[in-house]
């Protein structure tokens, strides 16, 4: 199902009676069947957006459409969504089976729908109970927790608990699956495992899925599309690799790189780009003279042969090696420090003056407001 | 050293609780002559179990017990249902004037029972409820402290559980019955026990609204029944009756010990 947000706004009344705008005039379209990563630092309004789509938060202004239906005023249980919480929100006193079956057995609307479905295909099942069991077992099979159906949530690991939560959300066959930071309570190894699981489950079911996360790696790894928010305002929406390669502004560049990007002061003068004080290369298209910030990702800076095109001079000040990755600190001629990743151990020696080169299409130039001016 | 101190303190507090009990049972087994002996004996020289039979024969103590059990059952049922529903509303639902109403309910806890007793008595008398069951039951059906205690417990159930069931279209009442109540079981048992103990101990109100001996509760019965013809209180029989009255409470405690203790230890519910 397609999800469309139109000028969606949420204002919270704070204690001192001033308004805090958590989500600001958000316009978005999420195509049917996609897995979307809703990404941003904490407090950017991503969870608020998710809960508005879920119908848990009411909307201050704007509209939410599922396909062509306006659901803005519809209550949560009428929207046909599945919701997965950060802390799993499993019922601790019920077994895994009972947790998954809970919506099927206790919601009037779902019961009505299931009874109808059962009536249509009842020849396949012994009775209604067998039909419910089949649905629960199918969901359990999908998330691979069939072996634990009799256990209580407290007897499962975090990753297994999150699978149960996903099973409970999809057992009622929702048209949209919403996940609020589903991985952030898991340890690093489980997180990677579970995120691949989410990808697999989403692909198998084909349910339009929105996953909120503050971890860009998570979002880039499994999303079909990422949406970056900052202070309730949409920054960029696009394919993960595209957002990484062509960030819309300085915020997205820094956030998506997980701070593994150098922001170097520079300037544009007479249509030439200066890195620090050093003249670097001529611009492909004319731009006004101004101070700029130049974004250079660690992994894109390489040592160069003498006098290559797009090279600059710097001296190595420090080197640290963690596992297979060497991080090297170098100083530009005007004293600014930059960092780069380098794996060829021998090529860089300390306090040596060297030439470095960056592929021009990875050089990101931003103006003082953080807007992107240029990507060569 | 600190361990020794801890055990000393625990023994001392245990003694403070147990000595009156011991003295009650001790007295209940003595003969009338031994009770008057000075210094008093720490252990009956001769066990007189006849005291218990006398207590039952001399006063309608079994009838009093029956009355108390009936009142306690009604009060526990009604007040628990009322407390659970009110506490759920205060913990989870949003309605206009909720904070104000909650403060009003808490406010009634500040007013001592003794002050209400006269106005309550006038209400009951005007309704013509003297010597009736409802006079004994009605004033105990709403218990501000129980509402408060349950609300706090309900608030500890994570919001997400409620939201998850809302998204699934589960009704408030169904959520309360299937999720809230099982998760708050120990507090609910504690609340029920508190209600029973309250009824068992209550004295002033039932003696005010009942004049008829057949409507008396145990506490009044114990006070009035065991005075001899010469006006002297027959302690050994009174204590035997007290022991009989306490037994049901002790049984109740032993039966529900696990719940009461886990209710006190747990303090919170993990999500």
What's the main sheet of chain B like? none
Indicate the structural class of chain A.
alpha+beta
Tell me the overall shape of chain A.
elongated
* Radius of gyration based on Cα positions of chain B: 23 Å
Gap from first CA to last CA of chain B: 39 Å
Q: Strand-and-helix sequence of chain B, N→C?
A: HHHHHHHHHHHHHH
Number of strands of chain B: 0
Over the alpha carbons, how many angstroms does the gyration radius of chain A reach? 26 Å
> From the structure provided, what is the oligomeric state, counting identical versus distinct chains?
heterodimer
User: How would you write the strand order of the largest sheet of chain A?
Assistant: 6-7-8-3-9-10
Secondary structure: helix percent of chain B: over 70%
* Helix count from the secondary structure assignment of chain A: 9
Taking pLDDT < 50 over at least 5 consecutive residues as the criterion, the unreliable ranges of chain B are: 266-271
Largest sheet of chain A: 6 strands, mixed
The CATH superfamily title of chain B: MetI-like
């Amino acid at each position: 199902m397609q999800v469309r947000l139109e000028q969606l706004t949420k204002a919270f009344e704070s204690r001192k009676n001033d308004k805090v705008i958590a989500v600001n005039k958000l316009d978005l379209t999420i195509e049917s069947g996609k897995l979307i990563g809703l990404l941003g630092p904490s407090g950017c309004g991503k969870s608020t957006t998710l809960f508005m789509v879920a119908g848990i938060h009411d909307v201050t202004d704007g509209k939410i459409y599922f396909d062509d239906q306006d659901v803005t005023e519809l209550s949560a249980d009428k929207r046909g969504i599945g919701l997965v919480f950060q802390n799993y929100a499993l019922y601790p006193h019920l077994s895994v089976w009972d947790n998954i079956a809970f919506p099927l057995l206790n919601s009037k609307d779902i019961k009505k729908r299931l009874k109808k479905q059962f009536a249509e295909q009842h020849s396949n099942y012994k009775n209604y109970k067998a039909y419910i069991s089949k649905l629960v077992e199918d969901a359990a099979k999908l998330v691979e927790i069939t072996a634990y159906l009799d256990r209580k949530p407290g007897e499962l690991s975090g990753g297994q608990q999150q699978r149960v939560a996903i099973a409970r959300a999809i057992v009622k066959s929702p048209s949209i699956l919403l996940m609020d930071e589903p991985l952030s309570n898991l340890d690093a190894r489980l997180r990677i495992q579970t995120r691949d699981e989410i990808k697999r489950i989403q692909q198998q079911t084909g349910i339009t899925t929105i996953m909120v996360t503050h971890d860009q790696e998570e979002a880039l790894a499994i999303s079909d599309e990422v949406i970056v928010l900052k202070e309730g305002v949409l920054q960029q929406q696009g394919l993960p690799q595209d957002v990484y390669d062509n960030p819309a502004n300085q915020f997205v560049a820094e956030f998506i790189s997980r701070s593994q990007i150098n922001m170097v002061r520079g300037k544009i003068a007479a249509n030439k780009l200066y890195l620090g004080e050093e003249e670097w290369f001529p611009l492909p298209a004319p731009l006004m003279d101004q101070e700029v910030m130049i974004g250079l990702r660690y992994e894109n800076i390489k040592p160069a042969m003498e006098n290559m095109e797009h090279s600059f001079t710097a001296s190595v000040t420090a080197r640290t090696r963690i596992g297979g990755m060497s991080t090297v600190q170098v100083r530009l001629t005007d004293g600014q420090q930059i960092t780069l990743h380098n794996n060829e151990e021998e090529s860089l020696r300390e306090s040596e003056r060297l030439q470095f080169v960056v592929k021009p299409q990875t050089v990101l130039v931003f103006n003082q407001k953080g807007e992107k001016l240029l990507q060569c | 050293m600190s361990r020794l101190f801890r055990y000393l303190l625990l023994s001392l507090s245990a003694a403070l609780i147990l000595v009156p009990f011991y003295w009650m049972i001790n007295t209940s087994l003595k003969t009338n002559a031994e009770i008057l002996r000075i210094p008093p004996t720490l252990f009956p020289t001769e066990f007189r179990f006849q005291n218990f039979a006398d207590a039952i024969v001399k006063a309608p103590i079994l009838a009093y017990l029956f009355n108390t059990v009936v009142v306690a059952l009604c009060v526990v049922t009604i007040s628990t249902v009322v407390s659970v529903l009110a506490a759920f509303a205060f913990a989870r639902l949003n309605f206009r004037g909720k904070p104000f109403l909650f403060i009003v309910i808490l406010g009634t806890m500040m007013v001592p029972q003794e002050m209400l007793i006269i106005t309550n008595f006038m209400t009951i008398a005007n309704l013509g409820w003297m010597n009736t069951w409802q006079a004994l039951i009605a004033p105990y059906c709403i218990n501000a402290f129980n509402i408060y205690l349950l609300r706090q417990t309900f608030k500890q159930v994570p919001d997400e559980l409620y939201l998850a069931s809302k998204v699934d279209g589960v009704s408030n009442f169904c959520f309360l019955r299937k999720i809230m109540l099982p998760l708050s079981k120990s507090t609910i048992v504690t609340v029920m026990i508190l209600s029973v103990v309250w009824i068992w101990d209550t004295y002033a109100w039932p003696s005010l609204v009942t004049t008829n001996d057949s409507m008396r509760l145990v506490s009044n019965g114990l006070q009035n029944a065991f005075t001899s013809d010469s006006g002297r209180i027959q302690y050994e029989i009174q204590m035997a009756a007290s022991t009989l009255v306490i037994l049901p409470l002790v049984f109740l405690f032993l039966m529900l010990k696990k719940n009461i203790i886990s209710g006190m230890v747990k303090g919170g519910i993990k999500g």
